[in-house]
Amino acid sequence: MKTEKICRRDRIPFYDLAGKYLPSHEDAVVVDLGSGSGNFDDHLKLGQRYRKLFLLDGNGGTVDDLRKRYSNVILYNAPEKLPFEDMSVDYLHCSHMIEHLYHEDLYKLLAEIDRVLRRGGVLAVSAPMLWAQFYGDLTHVRPYHHEVLLHYLCGQDNVRSKEIVSDKYEVLDLAYRYTASGMGEDWESTFWLVDLMIRGFRMLGSVLRIRKCKKNAYTMVLRKHN
Question: Which CATH superfamily is domain 2-178+217-224 in?
Answer without folding.
Answer: Vaccinia Virus protein VP39 (3.40.50.150)
